[in-house]
Amino acid sequence: MNTPDSTSLIIGVGNLYRSDDAVGILIARKLQDRVSDHVSIKEQSGEGTSLMDSWQEIDRVYIFDAVSSGGSPGRIHRMDASREPIPAKFFSCSTHDFGVAEAIEMARTLGQLPRQLQLYGIEGKNFRPGEVLSAEVGQAMEQVVDEIMELVSPF
What we know:
Layout: E1 8-13, H1 23-31, E2 39-44, H2 48-54, E3 60-67, E4 76-80, H3 100-110, E5 116-123, H4 135-152
Parallel strand pairs: 1-2, 1-3, 3-5
Antiparallel strand pairs: 4-5
Helix pairs in contact: 1-4, 2-3
């Protein structure tokens, strides 16, 4: 794990045992050995208060999670959460009542959002118990990892 006092933080959200819901955590794991020491990486279940605690005093945060918004499986949604509200229904696959979207909006209300908060939602296909990503989500995961490497490598 990288140093906790870094100025950038990558948070992979999900559940490794609910098929496509694991994509956020798997992205974080793929990035673990590829990012500089100025970037910390954490895995989270998606529970809101824990998310809010994890980004305290961090300037730049990237969150990755599976979404279920009715879009095509594997579609990548990119949102600048530091500038725009996040629809709670976007994360309907979460098992938490106070999850990613709610944590972001609560932090916004309390003035506790990081200066930059980029949210990546990968449209899932299968959220049933299992440990295998659907092909569409797996392809999207690789695309996101490549994109993030370009964004965080300068830091």
